[in-house]
Amino acid sequence: MAGYWRSQVSIQDDPDVKIMMAGSTLRKVKSRSWKKQRHFRLLEDGLTIWYKSRWAGRGHSTFSVTELEAVREGHQSEVLLSIAEEFPANLCFTLVFHGRQGNVDLVAESPEEAQAWIQGVRKLIHKAQTMDEKERLDQWVWDWFQKADKNKDGKMNFKEVRKLLKMMNVDMNEEHALHLFTMADKSDTGSLEIEEFVHFYKILTQRDEVWKVFQDYSGDGEKLMLEELENFLRIEQQEGEQSAQHAKELIDRYEPSETAKKQSAMSLDGFQMYLCSQEGSIFKPEHRHLYQDMSQPLSHYFISSSHNTYLLEDQLRGHSSLEAYIQALKRGCRCVEVDSWDGNDGEPIVYHGHTLTSKILFRDIISTLKEYAFKTSDFPVILSLENHCGVEQQTVMAQHLRQILGDTLLTTLLDGQIPQQLPSPQVRIFLGFINGLSVPCDPSYTDSSFTDPKSNSITSKLFSIRSKLSRELSDLVVYCKSLHFHGFEHARLHAKCYEMSSFSESKAKRLTKEAGTDFIRYNTRQLSRIYPSGLRTDSSNYNPQDMWNVGCQIVALNFQTAGLEMDLNDGLFRQNNCCGYVLKPDFLRDGDTQFSPDKPEGRQGYRPLRLSIQVISGQQLPKVNQKEGSIVDPLVRVEIYGVPQDQAKEETSHINNNGFNPVWNETLNFIIHTPELALVRFVVEDYDKASRNDFIGQFTLPFMCIQAGYRHIHLLSKDGTAIPPSSLFVNVSISEFT
Fold this sequence. Notes:
Layout: H1 2-12, H2 15-22, E1 24-29, E2 35-42, E3 48-53, E4 61-64, E5 68-73, H3 78-82, E6 92-97, E7 104-107, H4 111-130, H5 133-148, E8 156-157, H6 158-167, H7 174-184, E9 191-192, H8 194-204, H9 208-217, E10 223-225, H10 226-235, H11 243-254, H12 258-262, E11 265-267, H13 268-276, H14 285-288, E12 301-306, H15 322-330, E13 335-341, E14 349-350, E15 360-361, H16 362-372, E16 381-387, H17 391-405, E17 430-434, H18 471-474, E18 481-482, H19 488-494, E19 499-504, H20 505-525, E20 528-531, H21 545-548, E21 554-557, H22 564-572, E22 581-583, E23 609-619, E24 634-641, E25 648-651, E26 663-672, E27 679-686, E28 694-702, E29 709-716, E30 722-736
Parallel strand pairs: 12-21, 13-16, 16-17, 18-19, 19-20, 20-21
Antiparallel strand pairs: 1-2, 1-7, 2-3, 3-4, 5-6, 6-7, 8-9, 10-11, 12-22, 13-14, 14-15, 23-26, 23-30, 24-25, 24-27, 27-28, 29-30
């Protein structure tokens, strides 16, 4: 643990971090009228930020640096912009959290203090993000020690240990707990200092199921020699010829003992560290990177898409926010929606019309898109403009689009020719499409009538308008002309590749059932956009899988609403560097395809697979009920989403009172008829015989991204953020079904 402590000491010697540890009075700002002073300080662990009202009693709040994604400097939030005249930019900063958690806007008392917090937090975030597996493990040990040491004397007595076990989701009888405590209490003082606690933690987290796998391949039971590790990688992890080279790399990367490294061997500690790393995870490392062909037409890709992007909550009274666009783009969204209406002062506004949702300026949204569109992905952004403005303010919209986005907005054909197929995503541009855009069908009517998508293009959304359309605005739509859908036969005979239609979820679902193969062929050449039913006023979502099964590209979801549907969306787009574009399977790109989701066995190259998942164990699952003494009864369910024949769910039994290291050793079996479209979702729940089970964690990934063998599944919260070190340990087998 020495390396971790050295890094802790060095970071705590940093002058900015020292100021944070000494503490500062900062104004926490929630609105123009809510600006309250709070005392903030960094705790001794170098990770926890503590704050409380200067006037309150004992009440305080904390959050971890690991929950933070970034620090924004100056007036970079709507709240801080609203008080810009009162507090200058050099006093202001915003703490940005992972996932859907709201940001924290702060105002310091001096520019120097603001800079100390801005730079200090950035250093701490960088340190947390660059820790290796060993340092991360040491950090968890330190976290538990801090939580257990209630009286803050740097030691942990047995009473504190008993409380710690409950906090860790462990139900252990007092006799066994005392036995572990005594084993760790080398100094025989009746309390554990930090190094003794490290030993206690190691005993507690000993993984018998990992040890058994290790023993199967270790000749002497103490270490895996290079050849033994190669055998494990080749036989169990199914790595084939690369096993020899990979074995050397793994020893170099994960083995903590220099002695073992010199022998080209791996100890049990190194073996467990490898299995718990990203390389040992269920997700193929090579599929995390940009690995797909990105030179095909836009219609050949699934595109991560958001509905009513401006909303943070429900569709009737929800808050409209620039932050909603930033969060969607951070999640890899590549098609965002803007509902524009006439503003009172000549400036177009954006909100959900005829509702009580709040309003934001169109120009502020475009400025936000310009700044954040290409931070997560270099590929085109499609700007879906739902236009309700009169001609005059449409012209203002066009001016904002041109002036703010500049040459990143596609306003002319890429090669000057009428396109026979859509361009590829290999250009950094914004593409626009307008709902109900009434422009001539022939794109040659004006040089600027159609645009070719570069890597980052925002596609203006289809405009549902009945009034006249501003020529300035319509000229910005190049490759995504909105057109009413007249049926698949009409589209086959008359449609152009640059024409696209929008479908409600109910209409799209009906078409997938009545004419699935026709829908697939249509989607090989043209873009289709699916949007949620207007009855979903709570911002709930439909299941996107049915639409992906027929090749629909722009399947728009309410990104602000966590749950199964967004888990599936995050799961599909987790591959290919999270760039928001995923290449469709070849049978969804062939204009003459015979594929039908209802009859997968009818396609050429049909090859069903058997998926067998041995759910072995769980590690340090989070508590659901924070009441003292409450411990979870976990079960694991594996869910398959894909073509109708592949939809399936199987679950393990539940384990009573053990969220720390439950062991199931149960095998769940599935037949996958269309592997290329299947998503696999692992869900952990707290069993409750009297009511609905409580959600603990989940992880979703494409079937084609699964690594076979002994793998860890690193669980995510309901919000989609990491909850380390919570994980499942499984053994995955994939074979041909005969």
